[in-house]
Amino acid sequence: MNIGDVAERSGLPAKTIRYYEDIGFIKPRRSLNGYRHFDEKELHKLAFIGRARSLGFTIEDCRSLLALYEDKERASADVKEIAKQNLNEIDAKITDLKAMHATLTHLIDECAGDHRPDCPILKKLGQS
Amino acid sequence: MNIGDVAERSGLPAKTIRYYEDIGFIKPRRSLNGYRHFDEKELHKLAFIGRARSLGFTIEDCRSLLALYEDKERASADVKEIAKQNLNEIDAKITDLKAMHATLTHLIDECAGDHRPDCPILKKLGQS
DNA sequence: ATAAGGGTTCCAGCAAGTGGAAGGTCAAGG
DNA sequence: CCTTGACCTTCCACTTGCTGGAACCCTTAT
């Protein structure tokens, strides 16, 4: 497979795949013309990373998860720990965003949103 | 005021204040010794930006909001529009994060998290 | 022969700062 | 008078996770 095929089948942009090679996730062989040549295993790995990323795992998390994935002696507790930390971060972000949401919704509701200059949104930003 | 005082009173790190000067938000005078000298107006502006940032507005949003803040002829509709767009982005992020949260919570619940290698989290990441 | 549609490399940039080095300034204490 | 420590200054690099673009090569079809 060339990079375009892998891009299509993994759902990752070709640029991202090259980037993932750069940072050491994969080391595809090269064809005589210099094109990257991917096998199913590399495709699988890339898809794995793509799914992990879409669940909010960082690149470093992905490295750890892949190492565990390939270690048949691993303890599931190690995986669970990484997932839990990720979940905590996601929860923290949700909490932050919900607070913003609440404040913004309130301010937007208060704001007439017409031609007049009076605006509770700016008033709020201008005061503590 | 020196930068340290402004940092304390605005809640922004000194580094961030210098950065905000770099990108054109403020232009504090300099004392003879080269130190930045801030007046209350600049402090107020920085605090305004800090509050806007904490509500999720981007730097570019802050520029627009500040311009509107200082324009006594503004229409509150313009402010409201910016706020609504920000709210939409916040909502989108919350939606994404909630989906991650749901999937992750489910996987974590399924995972024994013990010394054994069997792990539904990795299984899920390995398959579609 | 040429054009379209792959592929390659490398460099720059995004957001929004943060960290650190190397050095100038100022007030207080020995 | 000198030093110490807490400020302040500039400048450059780094962060995360890519993405865009330029300049170029390869392949296939017309």
Describe this structure in words.
The structure is a homodimer of 128-residue chains. Chain A is mainly alpha-helical and 128 residues long. Chain A folds into two domains: 1-73, Multidrug-efflux Transporter Regulator, Chain: A, Domain 2, CATH 1.10.1660.10; 75-128. The first copy, chain A, contains six helices and two strands, in the order ααββαααα. Chain A has helices at 3-10, 14-22, 40-54, 59-70, 76-110, 120-126; strands spanning 29-30, 36-37. A two-stranded antiparallel ribbon of chain A has the order 1-2. In chain A, α3 (40-54) packs across α4. The longest helix of chain A has 35 residues, at 76-110. The radius of gyration of chain A is 23 Å and the shape is elongated. In chain A, 27% of the residues are buried. The model of chain A has no long low-confidence stretch (mean pLDDT 96). Chains A and B meet through α3, α4, α5 and α6 of A and α3, α4, α5 and α6 of B. The structure holds a DNA duplex (30 and 30 nucleotides).
Task: Please give a quick description of this structure.
The first copy, chain A, has 128 residues and is mainly alpha-helical. Helices cover 67% and strands 3% of the residues of chain A.
Describe the structure using short key phrases.
2 domains; 67% helix; 128 residues; Multidrug-efflux Transporter Regulator, Chain: A, Domain 2; 3% strand; homodimer; DNA-binding; mainly alpha; two-stranded antiparallel ribbon
Overall tally of domains of chain A: 2
Q: Label the CATH architecture of the largest domain in chain A.
A: Orthogonal Bundle
Shape of chain A: elongated
Q: In which range does the helix fraction of chain A lie?
A: 55-70%
Q: Based on DSSP secondary structure assignment, what is the total number of beta strands of chain A? A: 2
What percentage of the residues of chain A does DSSP assign to strands (E)? under 5%
The helix/strand class of chain A is: mainly alpha
In CATH, the topology of the largest domain in chain A is named Multidrug-efflux Transporter Regulator, Chain: A, Domain 2
Kindly report how far apart the N and C termini of chain A lie: 58 Å
